[in-house]
Amino acid sequence: MGRMRGMDELSVGGRRVFVRVDFNVPLEDGKVRDDTRIRAALPTIEKLRAKGARLVLASHLGRPKGRKASEFSMEPVAARLAEILDGEIRLADDCIGDGARKVAADLRDGDIALLENLRFHKAEEGNDPSFAAELHKLCDVYVNDAFGCAHRAHASVDALPRLVSERGAGLLMAKEVEALGRLLGKVDRPFVAVLGGAKVSDKINVLHNLLGRVDAFLVGGAMANTFLAAKGLPMGRSLVESEKLGVAKDFLRVALDKNAAVLLPVDLVVAASPDAAEGQVVKAAAVGADLSAFDIGPQTVAAFKERIGVAGTVFWNGPLGFFEKKPFAAGTLAVAKAIASCPGFTVVGGGDSVAAIGEAGLEKLFGHVSTGGGASLEMLEGLKLPGIAVLEE
What are the angstrom distances between the C-alpha of 122 and each of 19, 117, 355, 375? Predict the structure, then answer.
């Protein structure tokens, strides 16, 4: 891996700095419902302002699919950022064109402009060089602080920085790469990976890349159902990726060969529906034909906590049950608290996992909370992320 330039190595005073941020935040009734991602970019924004930069912030929001739609406008984001900073944020009516160029040209030292949604143009996701050239007209320096988008070869992430000789990583991007890079280097042992979520297919490459590094895999969530089914256990009506049973069997075999422990649920919380008022605890081998598994059971929680409690390093991605529903949240929350209490280096990545620790008020107790679920997984797969690679050139 090459070295990304940091902001201290860039000449930004009095210059227009294009900052790719990840302001893809949830909206509700025309307002920002959760401003976590906005706040995550504040250290970079404040540092650049203190150096006299003229900031041109850019982000996507939702999936407008190349059309201008008011429900995907950055206007609520600009309003929330203005509230947080207690200052003016100039919102451009587009991310390219005469209006955007005038907004950028009128900036003074320390001023902030926010471009309209990048994905109002299909060319953004198409990594179109001509679109990147239009964005280039707005800036003299490029900073990427959107780790959550680093795995996407989009114009504002890949094509644009290639046109800007002075480019580097924002504070959040640098922090993410450093923390996740630690997991791929020399770590304090035991190294425990806690993996949940719905699909084996989403995480099988991560599982394989971490083999030989990880001492124990703790698997929960719906993806555990596929592993249990691969071992021949009846899973009733539980979500199972039947086409991935062979993949699951293969991983269990290779893990055994490499002396990596794989802890699967020994008991589960089951119900007829995720809308059930309560679930019942059963042995993993005793899921009824008309029932589905929606959480790990107390014996599994205890086994997971035991491994986590003595870990030197923990990586967690994916909830361990249908935690959005109260009857099935106990497993995820118990494991979240166990990881938060772990004295080792702890990293959590993925939107649902981060939401779970947010609900429990545990964010500050983790070594690192990643803002990029997909990006963090691809990095741990050993893949080269386009948004990082271009900053290392």
Answer: 20, 11, 30, 21
Percentage, residues of the chain above pLDDT 70? 99
User: For residue 118, what are the domain limits?
Assistant: 7-174
Catalytic-residue membership of 181: no
Question: How many domains, in total, are found in the chain?
Answer: 2
Q: What tens digit of pLDDT does each residue of 175-193 get?
A: 999 999 999 999 999 999 9
Q: 32 pairs with which residues across the strands? A: 27
Q: Which residues pair with 368 in a beta bridge?
A: 347
**Known active-site residue 374:** yes
Asked if 351 is an active-site residue, the reply is yes
> 62, 309, 312, 351: which is the annotated catalytic residue?
351
Beta-carbon-side half-sphere exposure of residue 216 (alpha carbons within 13 Å):
18
Q: Whole-prediction pTM value?
A: 0.88
Known catalytic membership, residue 68: no
- Is 212 within 8 Å of 382 (Cβ atoms)? no
Q: Are residues 113 and 215 in the same domain?
A: no
pLDDT in tens, 119-141: 999 999 999 999 999 999 999 99
| Active-site pick, 62, 99, 358, 374 | 374
Q: Is the pLDDT of residue 100 over 60?
A: yes
pLDDT digits (tens, 9 = 90+) for 236-282: 999 999 999 999 999 999 999 999 999 999 999 999 999 999 999 99
The answer to whether residues 192 and 334 belong to one domain is yes
Bridge partners for 214 per DSSP: 211
Q: How far apart are CA 70 and CA 64, in angstroms?
A: 10
Catalytically annotated residue among 137, 199, 325, 337? 199
Which residue of the set 37, 54, 213, 244 is catalytic? 37
Instruction: Name the domain boundary from 174, 208, 226.
Output: 174
Q: Which of residues 137, 152, 174 is at a domain's end?
A: 174
